[in-house]
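Hi R.,

Here's the chain you asked about this morning:
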Amino acid sequence: NDIIYKKREGGKLTREEIEYFITGYVDGSIPDYQAAALLMAIFFKQMDKEETFELTNAMRFSGDTIDLSSIKGIKVDKHSTGGVGDKTTLIVAPIAAACSVPIAKMSGRGLGFTGGTVDKMDSIPGFRTSLEPEEFLNQVKKIGIAVVGQTSHITPADKKLYALRDVTSTVDNFSLIASSIMSKKLAAGSDAIVLDVKCGSGAFMETIEDAKILGNIMVDIGSSAGKKTIAIITDMSQPLGNAVGNSLEVMEAIEVLKGKGPKDITELAEILAGAMIYLGGKASSLT
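And here is the predicted structure, written out as tokens:
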């Protein structure tokens, strides 16, 4: 109650208060109705830079975290805020891996009506998107890349909070969006992160101003956590490429890798892969 009241009145929450809330909500000692009240207070009164980082960190350590230290090199992760026809992970991850940047990536399923990377890979007959931790690490060591589905033990706080935000109209708050995305990225263990922040009529961030705000908050979180982080704002005012639908998008991704894909998705993939290769220490500049 004290934490809810403090935020409702516009106060700044401490690390201890935020950790108490996240721990209590995950273990069930804080009920949905109190968590919903705090989310609504955060929605209206906002969180500052430090509060947003502490919320992200508490969510990051609410479950298992992945240790990639046994993999040599600078591990680079990539996240897109999503959109119709966005099959970039299937293109940029292999390109970065081919340039000797180790990719140990956990990807999610789709939100809403668009398929996520794991949904797309599931459309390949016999393809396994679930690997045991040791199998996952060994694959990266052997071939330089592994892309798998997220385990249920990563950031359980985010799963519970997102479900509650969804039914309480508290999804579209910058701090809550950024902490949700970055807690998963940080828990996944890579050394550097490229963020593809979509902007336009088909994106969650419809204006370039909002996309910049979200990008800056996420870069601040990554930097505060000691990770090299870059945000790139890209256009989602129309679908990417020509193919929409999980198996069709896999085929189009292969065409792009062959140099025969549509111009828009090819150019975007070059930019994102270039940023990953730069952060991975295999290129001297972003251009």
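One quick note: The two ends are 51 Å apart (CA to CA).

Cheers,
M.
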